[in-house]
Design a protein that fits this description.
29% of the residues lie in helices and 43% in strands. It contains 4 helices and 6 strands. Strands 2-1-6-5-4-3 form a 6-stranded mixed sheet. Strand 5 and strand 6 form a beta hairpin. It starts with 7 loop residues before the first helix and ends with a helix.
């Protein structure tokens, strides 16, 4: 397999998410694209579901920021290791969580699928009420 010819959509996706521009992030996907949360096993497909998922996450963590740590290109895939930081819920709980996004890109550079890997137990430990 060839390396992605344009991993730019990954950079644009990260920028849109960090700007909380959920519509802009979703616009980078193909209309029938999917997103899977590996930690929960939940998936969403299609523009409407992807938009609802990102907007819902943004409501739970309004200052979310994904900081890129490393990027690996492999065939039509881009793996993006990140650290998510921000404040979760009310009252706000500081959160720092490492993770990995796997993007599958089309030949034209659109996002066909994403899978997000993160540690569910580490997430729950940080947001638990005392």
């Amino acid at each position: 397999m060839n390396e992605p010819t344009n991993p730019g959509p990954v950079t644009a996706f990260l920028a849109a998410c960090n700007a909380h521009d959920w519509a802009g992030a979703v616009a980078l996907y193909t209309p029938d694209a999917s997103h899977t949360e590996a930690a929960t096993g939940k998936s969403r497909a299609g523009t409407e579901a992807l938009t609802a998922g990102l907007a819902g996450f943004g409501a739970m963590m309004p200052d979310a920021r994904w900081n890129e740590v490393e990027r690996i290109l492999s065939g039509p895939h881009v793996l993006l290791r990140y650290e998510l930081s921000g404040t979760f819920g009310t009252p706000g709980r500081a959160l720092r969580l490492p993770g990995v996004f796997m993007f599958t890109l089309t030949a034209t550079g659109r996002i066909a699928a994403t899978t997000d890997f993160w540690d569910k137990n580490a997430f729950l430990a940080q947001i638990r009420q005392d």
